[in-house]
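Question: Send over one sample?
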Amino acid sequence: MSLGLSPAQMDVAFLAGFAGFFTIPFLIYTARVLLGVSTLPPPRPRGAGRRLAVPLLIGYFYWLTKPMCRLAVRSGQSASFFTTLGLVVAFLTAIAIATGHFALGAVLLIATGALDVMDGEVARALHLSSPRGAFFDSTIDRISDGLMFGGCVVYYAGTVVMYAALVALVMSFVISYSRSRAEALGLAGAEGLMQRGDRIAMLAIALGFSPLPAHRMEGFIAHPLYVVTAVALFLMALLNTGTAVARIVWTMDRLPAPATPPRRVGAGGPPRGERRVSASSTPALRGQPNQAG
């Protein structure tokens, strides 16, 4: 339904609504923080995951999604239900992006991020957190990331932007895998700027702000470049790569180096002045207590 608006007017109306929907609540949340009504989340220590977004933006997003999380808890549905629903929405997001409906893709991608928050809040509120649920959620998140950037790869197929989308896609998997592998080795492993929420937010904002300038510069053609999203994909490829490298380096620096192999004795026997010791010549090597301690 066009409501009697021309395509150009619809672009302006969507962008105004898109920006207003987030800007007005953000100003309200900022005022609440300044007045002491709301409290900012504490900054994460190094190694627990630095973010591109500042604590004000992180706290704002959780505050904005809090009413939906309360409804989700009251619905009686399990956390896995919202995780699965997020996967369905991510699939629809990929289709919207791949077919060039970037405004719709922006809305659906934000819904995907909100559902990702909701499943965690439901699990904590109902005390349903478990290794099984964490594994399922993490796996679905990786599929959603692949769909998110995969839609961009399909839309920009055959152009240089496609390679930026591919790099962003691959590096998002490296970021996630390096964290899970580091955590399996007993480290935090979440170092680097581009966390998953940052990737979703950056791409969603780029998608939402793409139609108006694209249609103004290129007209209402079948396959516009959507320059805002194209630039954002190059930036995300760079930031994702930097985050992956930072996470790998941070983890490698904290893992123990391999032990130095013992010096092998040559075929000519031990060096002169040394005596070969056998297990039978000392009680300590036969399993007896070593008196030297």
Remarks:
- The longest helix spans residues 7-34.
- Residues 273-293 have pLDDT under 50 and may be disordered.
- The CA atoms of residues 193 and 268 lie 57 Å apart.
